Amino acid sequence: MTGVRRSYLDGRFGQLHLRASAPAAPTHRPLLCFHLSPVSGAIYETLLLEMGRDRIAIAPDTPGYGASDPPPVAPGIADYAVAMGEMMDMLGIEEADCLGFHTGSKIALELALQRPQSIRHLVLISTPVYSDDEISTR
């Protein structure tokens, strides 16, 4: 594959928009890149090109952001992670590494907790950390 390709999958919240780059013969585990809110997977376009030299590199637009359909009600991080796990299943990805930026870090971490046998490595950029007081006011 040359460049970044865009596609859609039918997910639990409607159409899920993906950007992906991949070599003809991948030699490394796929990389899933999760964006911060309220942007989209477009922030990873340059990285997808680089990482797609030796692996499948995918940046979905989180449901409700970018070109993905919005959910009928606001989902939680666990719901987003389930949707990303279902994306892995639809794409036939059994194992992957994850990169998350801010909100995407929370999704990547939750996906690893939900699928410990499938997520091998995490790179978490600017992971949000909340105090007990901040959590109790939510």
Structure characterization notes:
Helix content is 28%, strand content 26%. By secondary structure, the protein is of the alpha/beta class. It has a single domain, classed as Alpha/Beta hydrolase fold, catalytic domain (Rossmann fold). The chain has a six-stranded mixed beta sheet. A hairpin with a 2-residue loop joins strand 1 and strand 2. Helix 2 packs across helix 3 (103-114).
Gist?
By secondary structure, this protein is α/β, with parallel strands linked by helices. The chain has a single domain, classed as Alpha/Beta hydrolase fold, catalytic domain (Rossmann fold), CATH 3.40.50.1820. Helix content is about 30%, strand content about 25%.
Total count of helical runs of at least 4 residues: 4
Range of strand content: 25-35%
Any idea what the shape is? globular
Rounded average pLDDT: 94
Number of domains: 1
Main sheet overview? 6 strands, mixed
* Contiguous runs where pLDDT drops below 50 for at least 5 residues: none
CATH fold node name: Rossmann fold
In quaternary terms, these chains amount to single chain
CATH superfamily: Alpha/Beta hydrolase fold, catalytic domain
What is the CA–CA distance across the termini?
44 Å
